[in-house]
Amino acid sequence: MFKVDVFLCGKRPYDRIQMERRERKALAPVPSREVFVATAEDLILAKLEWYRAGGEASDRQWQDVLGIVRYQGDRLDRAYLERWAGVLGVESLLDRAFRA
Asked: Which of 6, 21, 29, 75 is most buried, by the most CB atoms less than 10 A from its CB?
């Protein structure tokens, strides 16, 4: 058993970009089952938005962000993250996550 977050495509330009960047992943090899998942960068941005919207009180969202940053490391597209964090108003949180 595992947890799944479902994202519906919103109307913002970022929402459309996020859906275009989604990745197809195998859920099970036999029988073949595939799902679309958000990229690590888009998960970080979504969790930072949720964290900010919740008054920066959810330790779970913050720890999830830090975990993704640590696990992905240099594989993250920093330019993409910085661009959209600025647009979404979470640039200070992104900076803080990278410093942590």
From this structure: 21
Residue 3 lies in a domain: no
Residue 61 sits in which domain range? 13-99
Using DSSP's 3-state secondary structure scheme, residue 97 falls into: helix
**Cβ-count burial 41-59 (b if 16+ within 10 Å, e if not):** bbbbbbbbbbbbeeeeeee
- 1 falls within a domain: no
Instruction: Dump pLDDT digits (tens) for 43-91.
Output: 999 999 999 999 999 899 999 999 999 999 999 999 999 999 999 999 9
**Burial (Cβ within 10 Å: 0-12, 13-18, ≥19) of residue 39:** middle
